[in-house]
Design brief:
The protein is an alpha/beta fold. Helices cover 15% and strands 23% of the residues.
């Protein structure tokens, strides 16, 4: 199911709490603080996983008690965690935050291209230099990192994670919970079922069933070290 919420406007000001206190939460704190109308006022994590009392000078509170410190009537939330368990953990916290009554905001970089005013779901991000072509669709709880291309009429369904510099061809359909690694390519009109994993640099040019995995072998290490290679190649 895809969200019908509109591409966020800078006038949609909210004070927000970030779920998470790891690297992704730290990164998104910077994005929200410097390139959005939202104000981050705190962080929250499950009690058993909380590592800090404060982050960036703001409180980190137990998720079990978050409504007491940050009432959902007054604050919104963003779930800032990665693709653990093929996005299932982020979906779980997304669902739990909504059950507590929080409105989940989204973030779209001011440097992302969206000429067609494409819709994006709640708790989604689209980072700088991403291109979202007209008539595409971005679901809820979707992470689209920097430098990506989402082609015309393509669909990225809920709870997906699209790493940097991925190309999604026009008319492609990325099933829910999908993961696309750095520099992956999904061809024109290719349909991927739910929970597909496409590794870094892989090219998927045919439709695939749910749960499919595509891994591109890494470039083998050359037999010489850099010093000797430069000598024989005359690149010094």
């Amino acid at each position: 199911m895809l969200s019908n919420s509109i591409w966020p406007r800078v006038t949609d000001l909210s004070q927000i709490v970030l779920f998470g206190d790891g690297k992704i939460a730290e990164e998104l704190y910077v994005y929200f603080s410097n390139d959005s109308a939202h104000e981050v006022v705190g962080f929250t994590v499950d009690r058993d996983h909380r590592r800090h009392d404060n982050l960036f000078g703001m409180p980190v509170v137990d998720f079990e008690d978050v409504t007491e410190r940050f009432a959902p009537e007054s604050y919104a939330m963003f779930v800032a965690i990665g693709y653990h368990q093929l996005n299932a953990l982020r979906e779980q916290k997304f669902t739990q935050a909504k059950a507590k009554g929080y409105r989940l905001v989204s973030y779209v970089s001011s440097k992302a291209a969206n000429i067609g005013g494409v819709k994006v779901g709640e708790n989604s991000i689209v980072l700088e230099h991403a291109t979202i072509q007209p008539s595409a669709q971005i679901g809820a709880n979707v992470f689209v990192w920097s430098g990506n291309h989402v082609g015309h009429h393509a669909v990225v369904r809920d709870h997906c994670y699209i790493a940097g510099h991925v190309t999604i061809g026009g008319g492609a359909d990325i099933g829910a919970y999908g993961f696309l690694g750095i520099n992956a390519t999904v061809g024109h009109n290719v349909v991927l079922g739910e929970k597909c994993l496409v590794g870094a640099g892989a090219r998927v040019l045919k439709c695939a069933d749910a749960g499919s995995v595509f891994i591109e072998p890494p470039t083998p290490k050359f037999r010489l070290d850099s010093e000797h290679f430069l000598k024989i190649s005359r690149l010094e």
